[in-house]
Amino acid sequence: MLCLFALGLFLVTAGIPAFASACRRHIAQQRTSPNSHTFELRTIVSTPRETLSQQARQLYEAGQFAEAANLWQQAADLYAQQGAILNQAQTLNYLATAYQELGQWSQAETAIETSINLLQKNNSSTAIAILAQALNNKGSIQLARGQTEAALETWKQAEQNYSRAKNETGKLGSRINQATALQALGQYRRSKTLLDRLVGELKTQPDSLLKADGLRSLGIALQTIGDLLQSKEILEQSWAISQRLGANTNTGETLLSIGNIARDLKEYDVARAYYQSAQKRAKNAIASIQAQLNLLSLFVETKQWEAARALVPEIQSTISNLSPSRAAIYARVNFAESLMEMSGGASEQVSRGAGEQVNAYGVGFTNQPTTQTDNLTQPAPVGEQVNAYGVGFTNQPTTKTNNLTQPAPVKDNISVISFPVASELQPVGASSQLPITNYQLPITNKANHSNATGFDITSVAQILATGVQQAKQINDKRAEAYALNQLGKLYEQSQQWQDAKTLTQQVLQIAQEIDANDIIARAAWQLGRILKQQQDITGAIAAYRNAYNNLQSLRSDLVAINPDVQFNFRDNVEPVYREFASLLLQPNANQEDIKQARTVIEALQLAELDNFFRDACLDIQPAQIDEIDTQAAVFYPIVLSDRLEVILSLPKQPLRHYSTPLGAAQVETFLQKVYSSLYIGYSSQERLRLFQQVYNWLISPAQADLNNSKITTLVFVPDGFFRNLPMAALYDGKAYLVEKYAIALSSGLQLFPQGLERQKPTALTVGLTEARLGFSALPGVLVELKQIANELNSKILLDKQFTRQTFTQQMNATSFQIVHLATHGQFSSNPEETFLLTWDGKINIQDFDQFFQKRRVGILKPIELLVLSACQTASGDKRAALGLAGLALRSGASSTLASLWSVNDESTANLMSEFYRQLTGSSPSITKAEALRQAQIALLKNPLFDHPYFWASFVLIGNWL
Question: Which of 86, 101, 389, 417 could form a disulfide with 325 if both were Cys (CB 3.0 to 4.6 A apart)?
Answer without folding.
Answer: 417
